[in-house]
Amino acid sequence: MKPYLKWTAISVGSIVAIAHIGVLGHLVRREPDRIQVPTINIPRGTPYSSYKIEAGKDGYTIEYKANDPAILESQRSLILDKDKKGLFGGGTENRREWRRDQYTAEGTRNIGGAAVDGEGKSAKDIECIVADAGARSQGAMAGSAIAAGVGAPAVMGIPYVGWLAAGWVNLLGNKIGSSAGSLVNSAISDC
Predict the structure, then answer these.
(1) Count of alpha carbons within 13 Å of 161, Cβ hemisphere only?
(2) Is residue 191 within 8 Å of 128, Cβ to Cβ?
(3) Alpha helices by DSSP H, 39-115
(4) C-beta separation of 104 from 115 below 8 A
(5) Measured between alpha carbons, how far is 27 from 94 in angstroms, rounded to an integer?
(6) 126 to each of 57, 63, 120, 123, how far by Cα in Å?
(7) 136 and 186 in contact (C-beta within 8 Å)?
(8) pLDDT digits (tens, 9 = 90+) for 127-147
(9) Class of residue 14 by CB neighbours under 10 A (exposed 0-12, middle 13-18, buried 19+)
(10) For the whole model, what pTM was predicted?
(11) For the segment 2-22, what is each residue's pLDDT rounded down to a tens digit?
């Protein structure tokens, strides 16, 4: 064997051996019982949005209200008792007023019935659109998670294109989950 080939083989073998030792050292020093806090992406909605997040050992839940409070209330009262003698004689006045109004977040007074915006959509239509968008988003996340956990590892072993096929499986799971979320939302709500 030629001397330069011998030294080349020893050098390449040494580099591979050192890399393996480094990877093993990294894996041994890893802390498996470390608690990892999940990253929570809070949706951004209207200025009147509210959130309630509960976290525990088994996971977390998020309660999100997009327009909270959905109806603003205003109460006014006036009680006026005048029993004052004026310049020209008696002047008894006993007036009581009570007014309670409801407003939407945009400041429109609720007078009953469906409020229609400038495009001809009622509040129920807009509520259905928002609910469908949320259901599609939740379904897409669930579909992606299932596809990444089940489908992607199955196709990852395909030579040369496994990484690409895993991406396709993830996109397909996202699309199917979005459609399923919309179907479930339409079955549950009155839309």
Answers:
(1) 3
(2) yes
(3) none
(4) yes
(5) 84
(6) 37, 20, 10, 5
(7) no
(8) 888 888 888 888 999 988 888
(9) exposed
(10) 0.36
(11) 777 888 888 989 998 888 888
- State how far Cα 2 lies from the chain centre: 65
Residues in the chain: 191
CB atoms within 10 A of CB 166: 20
- Structure tokens that stand for 165 in this block: 């096929």
E-assigned strand segments in 87-168 = 92-103
Q: In whole angstroms, what is the distance from residue 83 CA to residue 91 CA?
A: 6
State the Rg of the chain over Cα.
33
What is the three-state SS of 4-34?
A: HHHHHHHHHHHHHHHHHHHHHHHHHHCCCCC
Per-residue CA distances from 77 to 80, 82, 92 (Å):
10, 16, 20
Could you tell me which residue, 61 or 84, shows the higher pLDDT? Answer: 61
